[in-house]
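User: Reviewer 2 asked us to show a designed sequence for the structure in our supplementary figure. I'm pasting the C-alpha cells here. Could you produce the per-position amino acids so we can include them in the response letter?
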C-alpha cells in the first residue's frame, strides 16, 4: 500500500466569523510534514481538518481520514486506568503486540501504574507508543514532544526517520526548531496572521541540519 500524499488545494475554513484558512494550498511527498509557527496560526486546526474532526467549507483535502489518528496536546489518557489498559482499550491491539514494539522500552518501567500517578512526560510517551503501535495511515501529532526530555526526543526522532512505518504519513506541529531538528521532513512555516491563504511551499529539512 502506497503512503498517503500530503495534498491540500484551496482550503477554506472559519470558526463562525473568524476565518482561519482561505484558498490555502500545500503539497508534499515527504514521509514527515511539519507545521511550524506560533500559537494561534492554524496548525492544530489543520490537523483537525486532516483527520475529520473539523469539516472544511470546501472539501479539498486529499488524504484518507478513515485510518488516521490525532494525538492532541492535552492528555488523552483515562487517568483511572493503568498505562496498559490505556494502550489496549477498545480491543484493537493486544498488550503482547505493544511489548514487541521497538519503542516499548520507553514506557516499560511505569506502564502498569495508574495513569494519574504518572508525570506529563510519562503519559505523553504512552500516547505516542499507542499511536505508533496501531499503524495508522496518517498520524497527526500536535506538539508531540511537549514534556519529553531531550534524550527521548532523539530516540523518537530516530524512530520516525527509520523505515518502521513505511505506509504512514506523519504530520506534526511545533513551536520550536529543536523539536524537529533530528527529523527529515518538509517544513511549512506559518506566521500569526490569519487567515492562512495562498499556495505554500515547504522547505526540505535533513536530519541534523540547521534551520534556515
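Assistant: Here is a per-position design you can include in the supplement:
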Amino acid at each position: 500500500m502506497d503512503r498517503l500524499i500530503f495534498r491540500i488545494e484551496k482550503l477554506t475554513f472559519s470558526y463562525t466569523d473568524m476565518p482561519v484558512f482561505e484558498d490555502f494550498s500545500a503539497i508534499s511527498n515527504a514521509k514527515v510534514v511539519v507545521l511550524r509557527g506560533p500559537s494561534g496560526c492554524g496548525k492544530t486546526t489543520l490537523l483537525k481538518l486532516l483527520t475529520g474532526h473539523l469539516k472544511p467549507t470546501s472539501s479539498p483535502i486529499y488524504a484518507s481520514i478513515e485510518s488516521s489518528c490525532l494525538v492532541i496536546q492535552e492528555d488523552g489518557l483515562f487517568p483511572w486506568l493503568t498505562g496498559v489498559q490505556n494502550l489496549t482499550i477498545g480491543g484493537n491491539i493486544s498488550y503482547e503486540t505493544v511489548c514487541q514494539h521497538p519503542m516499548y522500552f520507553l514506557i516499560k518501567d511505569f506502564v502498569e501504574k495508574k495513569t494519574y500517578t504518572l508525570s506529563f512526560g510519562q503519559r505523553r510517551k504512552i500516547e505516542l507508543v499507542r499511536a505508533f503501535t496501531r499503524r495508522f495511515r496518517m498520524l497527526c501529532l500536535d506538539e508531540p514532544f511537549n514534556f519529553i526530555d531531550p534524550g527521548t526526543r532523539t530516540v523518537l526522532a530516530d524512530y520516525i526517520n527509520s523505515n518502521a512505518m513505511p505506509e504512514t504519513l506523519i504530520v506534526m506541529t511545533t513551536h520550536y526548531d529543536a523539536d524537529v531538528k533530528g527529523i527529515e521532513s518538509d517544513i511549512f512555516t506559518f506566521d500569526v496572521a490569519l487567515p492562512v491563504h495562498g499556495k505554500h511551499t515547504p522547505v526540505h529539512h535533513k536530519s541534523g541540519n540547521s534551520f534556515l
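For the response letter, you might also mention the following. The first helix runs from residue 43 to 50. The chain has a mean pLDDT of 88.
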